[in-house]
Amino acid sequence: MNLDIVLLLAQDGLTNGAIYALLALALVMVFAVTRVIFVPQGEFVAFGALTLASFQSNKLPGTLWLLLLAGIICFLMDWRYQQGLGKGMARRLRWSLMWQVMFPLGLALLVFFLHSSPLGLAKLPLWVQMLLALLVVVPLGPMIYRLAFQPMAQAPILVLLIVSVAVHLVLVGIGLVFFGAEGSRTPPFSEGGLALGSVPVQAQTLWVLGTSLLFMIALGLFFERSLFGKALRATAVNQTGARLMGIAPAFAGRLVFVLAALMGTYSGMLIGPITTIYYDTGFLIGLKGFVGAIIAGLASYPLAVGGALLVGLLEAYSSFWASSFKEVIVFALIIPVLLWRSVRHQDLDDEA
């Protein structure tokens, strides 16, 4: 192994690690606010990339019909819950109708119109296709929370984990039905690249690293400066206290699932030009983000980023030295972390 190979592997590791970092941040954020270990986080990666690929092939993605169906079911659940709660709840029901029925319906009509136009979806600019894909996939996040997790928000963590696994299995099956078993790869955001000495760096790699960094900075500013971010932080620290201060746990849950779906969907678009995405690819990618989140104890955002970058680098160098065992090596990283946390927790108990 010479210096060029070391740098190439480091580039691959940092690129993959940046994606894992976004997913790890989403997992930590969701767990802190809702106590849900969000196993289906990787499905948003696959749905985002495959929905964008469908638009670029001038096809109507199945996720559009999933959004319509999920929105109608969510509205019916809200309507049934609001019955008998008085006139004060009418405004909430109107918002539910607008965002969970009218918005998906209007979006479906827009996509159908663009699909039927002479140019078609495939001729739209890339940023328009990406925006449409985000509008289709991201709203599925809060809808999944409303359907699967909000009704049992006070359940034990183990029950929420079982529900999360069930949602993952359902989404994987839906992905197979909608997109088929064949994979897709999208064109890069831009062509070309640059050279660092004798090591070429593709433009898409720069997109991954640059936008991932901007996403992390924006997320930090959101939590530090915005009212909604502070509300999420308060809910993560003390749900009962946040409720007493007027922060609805259901609103916090939906908001954090919006952010998690946004990060997962955009991550899928970033890696679509780098690797072929299948309907079940997101699960493995999400698991590697989960390893980064476990390194952080599902609590620390900086540690989650560092752990995810470590996973990416370990995967890259393992693929060079022992490619057949790279997945085993990456996931085995959880074992010493859990052992260390177990010993540390035991020491704290002994001191108490």
List segments where confidence is low: pLDDT < 50 over at least 5 consecutive residues: 348-352
Q: What's the helix count? A: 15
User: For the terminal residues, how far apart are their CA atoms?
Assistant: 50 Å
What general outline do the C-alpha atoms trace? globular
Major β-sheet annotation: 2 strands, antiparallel
**Counted beta strands:** 2
Mean pLDDT: 86
Helix and strand element order: HHHHHHHEEHHHHHHHH
The percent range for helix content is: over 70%
Number of domains: 1
What order do the strands of the largest sheet run in, or round the barrel if closed?
1-2
Q: What is the strand and helix layout of this fold?
A:
Blueprint: H1 3-34, H2 41-56, H3 62-82, H4 90-116, H5 126-137, H6 140-149, H7 157-179, E1 193-196, E2 199-202, H8 203-225, H9 227-237, H10 239-244, H11 249-271, H12 281-295, H13 301-321, H14 326-332, H15 334-351
Antiparallel strand pairs: 1-2
Helix pairs in contact: 1-8, 1-9, 1-11, 1-12, 1-13, 2-5, 2-7, 2-11, 2-12, 3-4, 3-6, 5-11, 6-11, 8-9, 8-11, 9-11, 12-13, 13-14
